[in-house]
């Protein structure tokens, strides 16, 4: 059954999977990214404004808590800009440049910690008048989180299966450090300040880091779906279960911790509520996720059924085509073919698919065929050849040469360029064209050439002359009183008389003369190389043969005669003018009583 693997891939590429991201499905994702990017940038801008305007309340949430350093706010502003730029494909380098700046800026501060030196970067942009210990310098946790975030921003545009696990590990470390700082702030902020790694991190710094890594995860999710176009079940699970399994237990745990510390709940009761709440939210999340997966699977099954139906219809269409369709690799191995092309070459379909295209070409034509084909596929300056029909000499199963007409186009599947070709039998096409030409130039009633054929012949003679250079003459013939015959005996009888009339006139002509039906009951004879006397004898022979032979209808004799006008081209006038003179001679013959010949 055609198509095989290539056909299935073509059908697959022609459908839009229900599980991939479409522009409509990316709407909420893009909105979330824009919101997070603007939020990070706005908070960072407020903090920098607090430093510039000396408004300390904008740099810290509480006088007892550390302030967000100017360098940290600047880094967050750069991150926000990078996240906003990273949404547009045309601005992909903006995200990478932002990530590089973050790594350089915070890498310098981290080196200061590691080497216990001061490179002047801490208060380079703005002095810190509030801190006595390492003024203006972000905490080590802040430096590391910005370096991780910068690395994610630099590589989020080139997501591959090899590096996805590294990216997920970086995301995990970033979420862990930022959440650890945020949760410790909520439980016991002063215990956090005792840890040198987190000593000077501000609470809104921890919040922005969590939001920043969330934005990085969304960016990677977006790019991963764009590059792979797969279902991405892992990301679906994370998106669905993040709230019930991570966020809800976290918020519930913080609330219960404060209730226990305040004496509203005992430790055992609070611990019981924590376990019960976690189990219920986890169970509810799993149930909801299972229902969503069932819905996704049902859509997937429906889509597969549609694809299989389309594949069957496509296979039926291709096998029903009078021409042949085949797909082959760049090396010429036939991967797929319909029944038509296999039959054309005299093979069974299964045997034909195992061949190489070179086996179907005469040896003397192979090199030129591959040369033209390679240029048509690879040379950008010869794109017109891809739409061109080639006339190719081919060999059938018995080694007999025949001509085929082939249109070739390139097909790229999984990064590999293949070729498709529509093939038709050249001889059959030429026979069809010849039949069409006959249809256009032949009068079907009398089987003689029609007026279009006469016009073409006159143009040819006018342009090139006769082969022997002899003079050309034209005889116009009209059946006398033919309207009376039609009215008296009916049009079927009139048609029969026209057909028999044309046969008798044709029998009266020489081999080199040509008969044309000019229209209605008028005929034209084109004579080349006859003298004036021979021309008159030919006209009289035609007239006599028509007059002497009786036409019958239902045993009733019908007398038929004809009038003739003859004109000779002297080489000084156009042939159409000669035709006009012959027509005038014909009308003069009718005026003289019909059944006569007039030469002019």
Poorly predicted ranges (pLDDT <50, ≥5 residues)?
1-25, 226-231, 380-385
Q: Order of strands across the widest beta sheet?
A: 2-1-5-4-3
What is the domain tally?
4
Which shape, going by the Cα principal axes? elongated
Average pLDDT reading: 80
Question: If helices are DSSP runs of H or I spanning 4 or more residues, what is the number of helices?
Answer: 18
Approximate helicity band? 55-70%
Provide the gyration radius in Å: 46 Å
Largest sheet: 5 strands, antiparallel
Q: What distance lies between the first and last C-alpha atoms, to the nearest angstrom?
A: 72 Å
Report strand %: 5-15%
N-to-C SSE string, H for helix and E for strand: HHHHHHHHHEEHHHEEEHHEHHEEHEEEHE
Please tally the β strands and state the result.
12
Structural class: alpha+beta
């Amino acid at each position: 059954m055609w198509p095989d693997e290539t056909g299935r891939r073509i059908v697959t590429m022609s459908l839009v999977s229900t599980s991939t991201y479409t522009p409509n499905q990316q709407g909420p994702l893009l909105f979330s990214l824009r919101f997070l990017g603007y939020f990070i940038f706005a908070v960072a801008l407020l903090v920098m404004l607090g430093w510039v305007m000396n408004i300390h309340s904008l740099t810290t949430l509480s006088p007892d808590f550390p302030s967000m350093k100017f360098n940290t706010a600047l880094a967050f502003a750069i991150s926000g800009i990078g996240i906003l730029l990273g949404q547009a494909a045309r601005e992909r380098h903006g995200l990478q440049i932002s990530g590089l700046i973050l790594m350089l800026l915070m890498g310098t501060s981290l080196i200061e910690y590691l080497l216990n030196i001061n490179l002047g970067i801490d208060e380079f942009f703005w002095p810190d008048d509030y801190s006595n210990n390492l003024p203006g310098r972000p905490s080590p946790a802040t430096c590391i989180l910005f370096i991780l975030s910068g690395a994610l921003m630099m590589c989020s545009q080139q997501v591959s299966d090899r590096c996805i696990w590294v990216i997920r590990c970086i995301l995990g470390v970033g979420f862990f450090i930022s959440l650890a700082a945020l949760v410790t702030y909520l439980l016991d902020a002063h215990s956090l300040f005792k840890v040198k790694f987190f000593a000077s991190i501000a609470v809104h710094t921890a919040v922005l880091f969590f939001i920043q890594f969330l934005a990085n995860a969304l960016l990677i999710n977006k790019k991963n779906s764009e590059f792979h176009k797969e279902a991405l079940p892992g990301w679906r699970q994370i998106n669905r279960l993040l709230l019930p399994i991570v966020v809800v237990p976290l918020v519930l745990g913080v609330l219960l911790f404060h209730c226990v510390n305040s004496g509203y709940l005992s430790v055992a009761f609070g611990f019981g509520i924590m376990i019960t709440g976690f189990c219920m939210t986890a169970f509810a999340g799993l149930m909801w996720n299972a229902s969503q997966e069932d819905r996704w699977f049902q859509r997937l099954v429906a889509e597969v059924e549609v694809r299989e139906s389309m594949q069957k219809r496509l296979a039926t269409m291709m096998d029903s085509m009078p021409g042949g369709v085949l797909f082959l690799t760049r090396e010429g191995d036939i991967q797929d073919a319909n029944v038509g092309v296999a039959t054309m070459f005299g093979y069974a379909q299964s045997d034909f698919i195992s061949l190489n295209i070179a086996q179907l070409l005469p040896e003397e034509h192979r090199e030129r065929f591959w040369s033209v084909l390679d240029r048509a596929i690879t040379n950008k300056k010869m794109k017109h050849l891809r739409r061109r029909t080639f006339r190719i000499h081919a060999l059938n199963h018995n080694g007999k040469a025949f001509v085929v007409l082939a249109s070739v186009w390139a097909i790229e599947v999984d990064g590999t360029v293949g070729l498709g070709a529509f093939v038709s039998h050249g001889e059959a096409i030429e026979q069809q064209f010849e039949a069409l030409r006959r249809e256009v130039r032949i009068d079907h009633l009398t089987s003689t050439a029609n007026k279009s054929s006469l016009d073409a012949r006159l143009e040819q003679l006018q342009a090139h002359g006769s082969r022997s250079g002899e003079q050309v003459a034209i005889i116009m013939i009209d059946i006398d009183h033919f309207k009376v015959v039609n009215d008296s005996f009916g049009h079927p009888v009139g048609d029969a008389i026209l057909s028999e009339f044309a046969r008798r006139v044709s029998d009266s002509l020489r081999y080199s003369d040509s008969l044309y039906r000019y229209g209605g009951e008028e005929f034209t004879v084109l004579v080349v190389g006859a003298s004036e006397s021979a021309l008159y004898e030919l006209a009289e022979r035609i007239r006599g043969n028509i007059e002497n032979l009786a036409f019958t209808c239902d045993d009733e004799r019908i007398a038929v005669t004809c009038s003739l006008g003859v004109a000779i081209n002297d080489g000084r006038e156009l042939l159409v003018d000669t035709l006009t003179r012959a027509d005038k001679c014909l009308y003069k013959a009718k005026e003289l009583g019909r059944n006569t010949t007039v030469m002019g």
